[in-house]
Amino acid sequence: MKNGREKLSENKILSFHCLYSRHKAYSQWEKDVDYPDFNQIQIDQSFNWSAFSYPVWTRFNPEKEYMPNYGIMSYKVFTIKNLHKYSELIPKNSIGIEHAPEEYNYSHCQLYPINSDFEKCKINREKRRELRHILSRRWVKKLEPYEEPNKIEFLRYFSVYIVHRASLYFSKLYCKKTKVNRSFSF
Amino acid sequence: MSEKYDLYISGEEEIEFQNSSIDDGYFLSNMEISEDDVDYKSLSNRAGFTDFLSSANKTRPFEKVISHSSSYFEKEVEENELTDDGVLNRKQKYQYDLLYKKLESNIIGETQYLIEEGIELPNELVIDFAQNILYFLAYYSIYPDKLTTTVEGGICLIFYNGSERMYLELYNEGDYGYIIEDLESKKLKENKNLNSLDEIIQRLRRFYF
User: Fold this and answer.
1) Distance from A32 to chain B by nearest Cα, in Å?
2) Does residue A170 sit within a domain?
3) pTM of the predicted model, to two decimals?
4) For labelling, which of A17, A57, A127, B106 has a CA lying 20 to 30 Å from the CA of B18?
């Protein structure tokens, strides 16, 4: 829940943090076939931020219903911030990650095109497909539809959550300190 | 806008294209037909096209599609196997009907998810166009392995051939493109836009043959 908390700036989303997205398999998807498929990856993909969410929380809809038929993908923020390294078609700093808290989901983040290179129009289709393909194949961990994490995975998720939350806290603290120092120097 | 275009084949047999939403020339902006493009003699011999094709340049959209795609009908088909449409044989027609029904049911099945995620549903324009592609591909006995929607707004046809997979995306806005991926390395081998129905069919034929 948002609970009156503020939106955080993009530089608070650290490179080693993770972003979790949910994808529903298409009608003809079969187990043991690649998941997610290219056609299910959006340019303005929504994510849950690992500093505020477990991966399985992405399976809750706004009505707080748990949807086990959705698969979950984990991405490193580093990957998303460095998409230009995977394709010549993608310019540097073309896609950003914005913290976009929702009333029921404070961890919600969203991809957004920084310039007009990826806006939805005919001339950008090729670049958009390139980007979507990279995202569909560059995940670090996934849960397929109806797959539930075991106890060990839950422990791992918990430790990731604690470490990422702590790192966010320390980065905030560091920013405050540097601001104080700057005000002194002025 | 709802219009019915009739195409006469073999003089007596008739294929009806129910074109419910396509504006004149929408898909066909890149299809310019000259008299030289159409081999009327061979057409009338092979598929029984009547001389309506001679007025191809002043015809309505679907007549243009058909006339431009006349080269697709080069393949010899046993007369006794032909179905009522005079183009597809029984097996091809059966597969085509099956795939079109599958496409419709998949769109219905995926609609709720698309609405929940705020994704544009495939519009009538793109569904009609997908139907036409399935029809033309059926003539060459090329059938997509999977039919689904795409989060870009439109329809995605998935084809497998050996170690390659092709995603052909048809967008609501009336444009289309594809990617070809290597199944083992998961690397992108090709990513291009296509400009016409003709290009789609030709690219798919190259993908398979």
Assistant:
1) 13
2) yes
3) 0.73
4) B106
Question: Which among B119, B171, B191 is the nearest to A126, CB-wise?
Answer: B191
All residues of chain A having their beta carbon less than 8 Å from the beta carbon of residue B175 are 122, 125
Q: Is B27 on the interface with A (CB under 8 A)?
A: no
> Domain range for residue A93?
10-183
> What does the block give as tokens for A121?
């129009």
Rounded CA gap, A186 and B162, in Å? 67
What does pLDDT average to over chain B? 71
| A126 contact B CB<8A | yes
Contact A28 B156 (CB under 8 A): no
Report the domain count for chain A.
1
- Touching check for A95 and chain B: CB below 8 Å? no
ipTM exceeding 0.85?
A: no
Q: Kindly provide the residue ranges of all beta strands, DSSP E only, lying in chain A, ordered along the sequence.
A: 18-24, 46-49, 70-76, 95-99, 108-113, 141-143
B73 close to B40: Cβ distance less than 8 angstroms: no
Q: What is the pLDDT of residues A142-185, one digit of tens each?
A: 888 888 999 999 999 999 999 999 998 888 888 777 765 554 44
